[in-house]
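step=encode ok
step=design start
structure_in=
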């Protein structure tokens, strides 16, 4: 995969009318949010997750009373800058190809749906996946090779790591649900290699396969029975001595 693909978070701002802007700056590479208990670490993590397409609205803490909008500036490895905007209370996104400080007076604002969609490419998941170079990428769902389209939320699970995940003794790849292990392994393989499940041939479920074989067997048996009846009918109406004259 090209080294120009992908992006990193550079700024997070929380803005409200007549309120001092609450802001954080991030840098290219791994970033860690640290601090004492009850200093807002979890809230910041929730905001970042929310601005990358997460469905859970950030926790309503006293310190954010009067604040209304979240802004997230992201920079691509190819040199582009985008700023995403979303209401703290939830809903869809707007974005501009400008630096965060210039959002209000520069650039053309466009809309993005908050939920991944296979029919509308103007959604946050497809937008972020495109920046990463992923287009029409498919995840392997199970041992039968059934597939689904990759969502950016799949990627986010491996790139946004909360405190509980850091201290856990469990695998950093698998997230605990046994029936999701094949998908999680497939997503991790996509991140590492760019190779997806698009070309995998789906294997029929054993019960379905057996039912089809039984159905074909019964159909063939009915054809054989029908032909045997025709032969019997023919022999009864046309004895061998008469068949010599046909």
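sequence_out=
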């Amino acid at each position: 995969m090209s080294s120009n693909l992908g992006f990193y978070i550079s700024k997070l701002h929380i803005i409200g009318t007549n309120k001092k802007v609450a802001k954080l700056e991030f840098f290219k590479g791994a970033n860690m949010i640290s601090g004492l208990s009850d200093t807002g670490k979890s809230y910041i993590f929730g905001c970042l997750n929310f601005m990358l397409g997460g469905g859970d609205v950030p926790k309503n803490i006293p310190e954010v009373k009067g604040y209304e909008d979240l802004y997230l500036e992201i920079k691509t490895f190819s040199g582009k800058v985008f700023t995403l905007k979303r209401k703290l209370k939830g809903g869809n996104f707007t974005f501009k190809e400008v630096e965060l400080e210039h959002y209000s007076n520069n650039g053309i604002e466009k809309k993005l749906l908050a939920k991944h969609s296979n029919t509308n490419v103007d959604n946050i998941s497809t937008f972020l996946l495109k920046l990463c170079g992923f287009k029409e990428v498919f995840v392997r769902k199970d041992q039968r090779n059934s597939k689904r389209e990759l969502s950016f939320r799949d990627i986010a699970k491996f790139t946004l790591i909360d405190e509980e995940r850091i201290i856990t003794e469990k695998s950093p790849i698998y997230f605990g649900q046994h029936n999701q292990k094949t998908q999680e392994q497939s997503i991790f393989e996509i991140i590492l290699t760019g190779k997806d499940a698009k070309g995998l041939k789906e294997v029929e479920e054993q019960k379905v396969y057996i039912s089809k074989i039984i159905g074909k067997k019964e159909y063939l048996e009915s054809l054989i029975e029908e032909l045997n009846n025709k032969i019997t009918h023919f022999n009864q109406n046309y004895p061998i001595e008469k068949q010599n004259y046909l």
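step=design ok
step=annotate ok -> The helical segments are 41-51, 124-131, 152-159, 163-167, 181-193, 206-237, 240-243.
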